[in-house]
Amino acid sequence: MKYAIITGASKGLGAAISTRLINEEFGIFSVSRKENEDLRKLAEDKKLFYAHFRCDFSDPKSIEITFTEIVRKLSGTNELWVFNNAGVVEPIETVGKLAPESVVQNLNINFLAPILITNLLTQRLAKSKVTFINVTSGAAERPIHGWSIYCSTKAAVNMFTQAGALEQETSNGNHVMIGFSPGIMDTDMQQTIRSSSKEAFHDIEKFKSYKEEGHLRSADTVANALIDLLLSGKVVNGEIYHMNKLI
């Protein structure tokens, strides 16, 4: 059986990825603060492996404990997909008005967590074939008013992905690392963005129009495009894939 670890699996893109993979007969490790009971039921109905782990991605110790336990349960696994999907857009605010605690939380969840997870699994599953899919954003490639922290962490994720992939290539390692930019989706993150202020985020009206005019893709549509890519066997190590180019 193939297995997948999905962070932020309880809702949005994480839940959609998990649902598709269960339908593809993957065993699932769901990692998030809360459990999506629909995922458990779907896996049970299909008689597939499913386990949920509660984790605080802003806490490095919680990450170490959680993923050490997951590795114990993965003993003997030959192939694994890891989706570093959990992320936050806050703080949405201009530099000079940023709350330090929000900055630290964003850095920990968006950037430090994928690093720690990837490092731990790369080390402890060196003989397995692990594909790491780091969910990034178009915000990694251009500055956006009010999103200095989000843009910066996603840009850092891209570089970490590419550097890690290069290291695997030069050492003839078993692992593959790619980035995936999902574009604009109809998720809770978009609702958070639309709830910000014009002063903090100058493009707020544009993002409101995405919702009003039906330009937001469903999480299912995005998840299916990503899984189709992975199942095709044509993934290139170190590539940053963009949803707009997959459809």
Automatic annotation (TrEMBL):
Keywords tagged on the record: Cytoplasm, NADP, Oxidoreductase
Source domain of life: Bacteria
E.C. number: 1.1.1.320
Any one cellular-component term (Gene Ontology): cytoplasm
Protein's UniProt keywords contain NADP: yes
Similarity comment: family membership: Belongs to the short-chain dehydrogenases/reductases (SDR) family.
Protein name, as recorded: (S)-benzoin forming benzil reductase
Record organism: Bacillus yapensis
